[in-house]
């Protein structure tokens, strides 16, 4: 009988175990009054999304609702006519992606721009994904040839050897409230250019109030002009993975929440610079204005790191604690080497309300006179001359 | 090799010792066709000298003065035999073999010796008889070496090592988790952790183990998914009349004692969490984010176990064994935590981790022996494994985040407070039936259920923490909120269901030839889901205050004013129920199904006295599918993968007996390795410093690895459990799978078939030797040593698919393989009347091994070699009372993981675990 009592004791003990932690969790009651509820999606609206199986044309001056990822696959074209407005439902998985071989032909005008925005009545940064274009131009995270990498959002392939790959045209296109994050490392930008080739035309684009970066280049050779980034909460312009295009007329304006004006990496530091022969990001930036929130805030205008090269011409920086901050890892000199080789430097620059103009944390020794020439000569992007009609403020 | 020769010399020296004569021989059982007769008494009449036969029927009586003697052989139920005129001369051995037969007077008593497979001698006998290369460790040895769980147990076996601080990851011959299988009474045993294929063997306390065996060569009755070995845990059973043991103990960790130990809120003393039935959103509204004081740092453990048997009718017997135990443990670690790829992404020079674990085990075993021919057994096991972990990174304000917003040089701080609870239920019915003299049946049916849950993990990120520590009230730390999920609550659930069965027919054609044929199969289903709520601060750079007192900040009344909650999948966006400040739908889900059905046949053919052959063939049908709805995949992905294969798996095991005690073994087999659910499900788990996800392409290019295994071994079984063996093995693994960083912008590690082939070549050595014997010829000082040297290489290639990866080199070592593994122990067990102390010193060591292979330009992550010494001192005071003491981790080595880079190593984590001091009182009723 002893054994039976003992079995009973085990049972009793087991019951005790389960009953031992507390649960004082209150129930939730949701009272949803008016507000968002007054604006349900009407199925008769012009709703778009999904993977195209034929070319799609969005009509001029028409409002569309984007309810899921709109994918433009190889061989298909998405044409967007002037004045079309694409309103995205919320979620980082609601975005427009043009895959390798696909094309977007979005040509607005200065008075009738094309707008991608949030469909929320009270829109916020990060409401939806953004515009993603994936091309076949070189990236330095792979060994070359036709090897591809996959995008941060959507896991889509990009990269290759077609320097003059053509993904279409973006002209007078504004993206608002984009940048939803899928997780801590996967964030949408306003415009994400993945391995986009220089056969593509990018002229007059604006990223407005995005949660992450405004415009990001992951490798590629594309040139872009008349870029406006206003109120990006992370870096306004970002490049990495061997981006080698030229950016002309770039205007960046920080709002209350922001990170750097420009953050440039020479390669993707998660996987290394695997290119052979080796190359780094080395864009040229002509006519650049970055407006910060004043030098009393701990902020910096431009961070160059991980071996990037960059040639700046005609720059105006105002309202920053730091102007340029150049970084290398301990014991390395990839970024610094760019400066001493003459691959990185600034011609004609003006500083307004900037405390430290250059912070050199690279492995190389150089002074401001090597890095900057023509201090005081910078006039910036002359935003007023090209922003009228199509940008938001 | 120098050590090896020294060892042989040393062994030879110990063996040579003879002045008087020796009587030796073997006893056979006429009633069992001349099988060895163990446990029989052998007495030299007129002297006090005597012994009992071992499991092999062998006996030896040393140190007999020259003369002429009469020897008496006796055994219960058998006729005693006296042999006269046995002459012993100095320095010589007299051999006396004897066959014994059942006595006429006792023919109503049926005596069948059942070998209790928990003694070392019995298991060595098992190892000696086995046709595969198998090693086991039984309850007796576990107790002697003070081993508390199955994980520690298997590391006493050659070629096996355990990951330090890595949660019971076991490596067999350098091959890790994905190349091992674990079974329980020969039936499938589930894993408790999503990251694992095998059960954490730490969860099997030695109270529930009869023995643990590791088979390193393949036999046709194993599942085809076999590479390094199969670990089988046999549940303890009790067939005696009655016993009841109670023990109580306590333990302290030298690091944890005296620390301000904290744990997560809402978890019970026994490691249960009672909010699973609540919606996660209700949980985060009702409960805060702060850790709470654990109010203790001293571990407790207690267990009760008992057994009783009843005779039923003439020949049946019902036996019940049950045990329940609970233990908790406190561990505190501090040191750097770094995320380094090709650059330093995050560096926390100071981190503090508090780990509070609880383990409850209950097991019941009911054995009904219908008669000598039929036995049926029911086994039920429940394990609750719960761990609270509170981690603080960047505690001194010196943390660096390369992507911080306000200061990239210092002040980055993160905390992660989590709780994991794994509940495992295993229910089995097994049986053995002798249909007739020639045909025997062995079968089992099992159902397993696992709940592995991580409720309410809280992660907080802060910038400029240095300003909080500077004492200036005007400068304060702020929340880091690059994205809403930098500050988050996370909930994850996994549920597994598995049904499995085995049946084996053994047909004895003749004394020299028998056949095994049968079936085993399993179906397994896994369901996974998670959800995550981010805290999106409305004002940038919201100030923090005390980073360990944040419940006020995240209080529900601050929703919409200080922060909004964000969920990835909104509840009902079409009707206005959006992502903010509302409950949401699950973020990632997947369901995996596995089905394996195998039929097998093997012949056990004793060609002649020396040579036995066991050819076998298994034909296995394998089907695996996975359906997933996971965030951030290409929209073109079908969300489903399936693979079906038929495998033909031949095996051959050969044993050649050089002498009665020495044998050569040879084994060849072709097996496979199949991907795990976690390897194919593309869901990404985000840790503080790393991200790991699956790759569904593993099921398509190809869906499995073909493996060829070759083993040779020489073994010499000496007296009193002494053994010497040396072996070599080679394996070729086609299309091996490795965990490497995928080529994307997120640094996520995923599983890839990274090459065409991996090769493993190794040598093993095992020796066990008595060093001192007492007057009764029992070992009082003995030593054991086993060592494995492994050479591995694999070719590397880039791969493209749904995910891609690339390498900057053509080949490397295999992940998880330590070139050198060493285990050694020294045991001292004198006897002073009733007082029988046993002192053990157990040493183990593994050399540096690759923990994660580096892709792209990334260096490998290396787990640095760790030597460990444990001291265990058991004191049996009398037949009722035992006092045991232990000091574990005596060397207290630094546990370190590093990233290899040009010109040196970068330490990713580095800490000491501290010494564990334990005291246990045990009372036997």
UniProtKB/TrEMBL annotation, chain B:
It is found in: Cell outer membrane. Residues 127-229 form the TonB-dependent receptor plug domain. Residues 1-18 form the signal peptide. GO terms for molecular function: carbohydrate binding. Residues 459-890 form the TonB-dependent receptor-like beta-barrel domain. Belongs to the TonB-dependent receptor family. This is TonB-dependent receptor.
């Amino acid at each position: 009988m002893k054994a039976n009592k003992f079995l009973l004791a085990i049972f009793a003990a087991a019951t005790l175990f389960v009953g031992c932690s507390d649960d004082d969790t209150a129930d939730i009651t949701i009272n949803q009054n008016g507000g968002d509820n007054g604006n349900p999606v009407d199925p008769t609206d012009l709703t778009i999304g999904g993977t195209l199986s034929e070319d799609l044309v969005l009509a001029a001056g028409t409002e569309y609702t984007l309810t899921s990822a709109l994918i433009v696959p190889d061989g298909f074209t998405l044409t967007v006519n002037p004045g079309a407005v694409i309103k995205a439902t919320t979620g980082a998985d609601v975005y427009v992606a043009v895959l390798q071989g696909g094309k977007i032909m979005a040509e607005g005008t200065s008075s009738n721009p094309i707008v991608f925005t949030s469909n929320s009545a009270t829109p916020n940064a990060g409401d939806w994904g953004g515009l993603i274009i994936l091309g076949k131009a070189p990236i330095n995270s792979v060994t070359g040839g036709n090897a591809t990498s996959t995008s941060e959002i959507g896991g889509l392939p990009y990269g290759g050897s077609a320097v003059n790959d053509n993904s279409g045209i973006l002209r007078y296109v504004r993206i608002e409230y984009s940048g939803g994050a899928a997780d801590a490392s996967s964030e949408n930008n306003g415009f994400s250019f993945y391995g986009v080739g220089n056969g593509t035309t990018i002229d007059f684009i604006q990223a407005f109030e995005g949660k992450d970066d405004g415009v990001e280049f992951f490798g590629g050779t594309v040139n872009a002009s008349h870029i406006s980034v206003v109120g990006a909460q992370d870096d306004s312009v970002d490049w990495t993975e061997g981006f080698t295009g030229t950016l002309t007329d770039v205007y960046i304006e920080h709002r209350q929440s922001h990170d750097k004006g420009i953050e440039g990496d020479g390669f993707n530091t998660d996987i290394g610079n695997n290119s052979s022969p080796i190359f780094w990001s080395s864009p040229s930036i002509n006519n650049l204005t970055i407006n910060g929130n004043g030098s009393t805030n701990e902020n910096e205008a431009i961070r160059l790191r991980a071996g990037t090269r960059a040639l700046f011409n005609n720059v105006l920086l105002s309202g920053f604690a730091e102007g340029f901050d150049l970084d290398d890892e301990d014991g390395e000199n990839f970024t610094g080497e760019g400066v001493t080789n003459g691959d990185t430097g600034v011609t004609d620059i003006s500083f307004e309300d900037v405390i430290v103009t250059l912070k050199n944390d690279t492995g190389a020794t150089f002074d401001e006179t090597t890095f900057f020439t023509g201090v005081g000569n910078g006039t910036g992007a002359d935003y007023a001359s090209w922003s009228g009609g199509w940008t938001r403020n | 090799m120098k050590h090896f020769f020294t060892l042989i010399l040393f062994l030879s020296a110990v063996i040579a010792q003879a002045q008087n004569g020796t009587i030796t021989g073997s006893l056979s059982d006429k009633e069992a066709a001349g099988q060895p007769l163990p446990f029989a008494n052998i007495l030299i009449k007129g002297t006090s000298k005597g012994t009992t036969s071992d499991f092999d029927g062998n006996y030896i009586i040393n140190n007999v003065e020259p003369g002429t003697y009469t020897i008496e052989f006796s055994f219960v139920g058998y006729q005693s035999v006296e042999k006269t005129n046995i002459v012993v001369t100095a320095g010589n051995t007299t051999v006396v073999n004897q066959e014994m037969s059942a006595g006429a007077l006792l023919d109503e008593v049926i005596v069948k010796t059942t070998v209790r497979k928990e003694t070392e001698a019995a298991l060595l006998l098992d190892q000696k008889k086995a046709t595969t290369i198998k090693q086991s460790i039984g309850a007796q040895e576990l107790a002697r070496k003070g081993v508390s769980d199955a994980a520690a147990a298997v590391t006493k076996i050659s070629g096996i090592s355990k990951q330090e601080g890595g949660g019971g990851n076991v490596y067999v011959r350098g091959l890790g988790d994905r190349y091992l299988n674990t079974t329980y009474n020969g039936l499938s045993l589930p894993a408790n952790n999503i990251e694992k294929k095998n059960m954490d063997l730490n969860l099997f306390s030695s109270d529930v183990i009869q023995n643990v065996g590791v088979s390193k060569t393949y036999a046709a009755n194993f599942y085809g998914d076999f590479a390094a070995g199969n670990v089988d845990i046999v549940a303890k059973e009790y067939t005696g009349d009655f016993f009841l043991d109670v023990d109580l103990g306590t333990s302290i960790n030298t690091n944890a004692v005296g620390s301000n130990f904290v744990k997560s809120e809402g978890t019970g003393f026994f490691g249960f969490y009672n909010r699973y039935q609540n919606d996660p959103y209700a949980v985060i509204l009702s409960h805060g984010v702060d850790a709470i004081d654990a109010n203790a740092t001293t571990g407790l453990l207690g267990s009760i176990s008992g057994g009783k048997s009843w005779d039923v009718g003439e020949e049946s017997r019902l036996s019940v064994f049950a045990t329940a135990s609970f233990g908790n443990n406190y561990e505190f670690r501090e040191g750097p935590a770094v995320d380094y790829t090709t650059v330093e992404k995050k560096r926390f020079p100071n981190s503090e981790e508090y780990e509070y674990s609880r383990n409850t085990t209950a097991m019941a075993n009911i054995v009904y022996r219908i008669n000598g021919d039929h036995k049926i057994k029911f086994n039920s096991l429940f394990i609750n494994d719960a761990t609270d972990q509170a981690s603080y990174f960047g505690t001194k304000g010196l943390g660096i985040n390369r992507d911080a917003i306000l200061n990239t040089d210092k002040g980055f701080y993160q905390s992660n407070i989590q709780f994991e609870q794994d509940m495992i239920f295993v229910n089995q019915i097994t049986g053995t039936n002798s249909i007739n003299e020639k045909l025997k049946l062995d079968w089992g049916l099992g159902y397993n259920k696992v709940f592995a849950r991580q409720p309410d993990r809280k992660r907080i990120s802060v910038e400029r923490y240095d300003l909080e520590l500077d004492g200036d009230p005007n400068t304060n730390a702020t929340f880091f909120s690059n994205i809403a999920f930098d500050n988050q609550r996370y909930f994850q659930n996994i549920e597994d269901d598995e049904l499995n069965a085995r049946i084996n027919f053994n047909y004895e054609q003749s004394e020299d030839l028998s056949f095994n044929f049968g079936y085993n199969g399993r179906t397994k289903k896994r369901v996974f889901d998670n959800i995550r709520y981010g805290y999106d601060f409305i004002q940038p750079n919201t100030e923090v205050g005390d980073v360990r007192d944040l419940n006020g900040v995240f209080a529900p009344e601050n929703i919409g004013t200080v922060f909004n909650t964000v969920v990835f999948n909104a509840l009902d966006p079409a009707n206005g129920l959006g992502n903010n400040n509302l409950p949401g739908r699950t973020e990632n889900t997947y369901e995996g199904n596995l089905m394996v059905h195998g039929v097998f046949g093997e012949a056990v053919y004793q060609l002649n006295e020396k040579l036995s052959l066991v050819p076998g063939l298994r034909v296995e049908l394998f089907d695996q599918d996975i359906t997933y709805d996971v965030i951030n995949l290409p929209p073109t992905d079908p969300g489903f993968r399936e693979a079906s294969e038929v495998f033909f798996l031949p095996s051959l095991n050969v044993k050649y007996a050089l002498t009665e005690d020495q044998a050569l073994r040879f084994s060849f087999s072709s097996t496979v390795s199949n991907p795990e659910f976690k390897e194919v499900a593309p869901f990404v788990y985000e840790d503080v410093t790393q991200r790991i996800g699956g790759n569904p392409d593993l099921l398509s290019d190809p869906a499995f690895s073909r493996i060829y295994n070759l083993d040779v071994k020489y073994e010499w079984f000496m007296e009193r459990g002494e053994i010497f063996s040396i072996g070599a093995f080679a394996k070729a693994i086609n299309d091996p799978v490795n965990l490497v960083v995928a080529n994307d912008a997120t640094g996520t590690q995923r599983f890839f078939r990274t090459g065409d082939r991996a090769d493993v070549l190794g040598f093993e050595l095992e020796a066990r030797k008595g060093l001192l014997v007492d007057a009764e010829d029992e070992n009082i000082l003995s030593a054991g040593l086993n060592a494995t040297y492994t050479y591995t290489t694999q070719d590397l290639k880039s791969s493209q698919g749904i995910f891609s990866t690339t390498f900057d080199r053509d080949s490397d070592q295999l992940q998880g393989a330590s070139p050198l593994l060493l285990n050694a122990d020294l045991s001292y067990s004198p006897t002073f009347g009733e007082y029988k102390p046993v002192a053990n010193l157990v040493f183990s060591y593994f050399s540096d091994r690759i923990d994660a292979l580096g892709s792209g330009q990334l260096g490998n992550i290396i787990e640095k070699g760790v030597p460990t010494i444990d001291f265990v001192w058991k004191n049996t005071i009398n037949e009722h009372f035992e006092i045991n003491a232990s000091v574990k981790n005596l060397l207290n080595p630094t546990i370190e993981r590093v990233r290899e880079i040009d010109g040196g190593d970068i330490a990713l984590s580095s800490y000491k675990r501290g010494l564990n001091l334990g005291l246990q009182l045990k009372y036997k009723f």
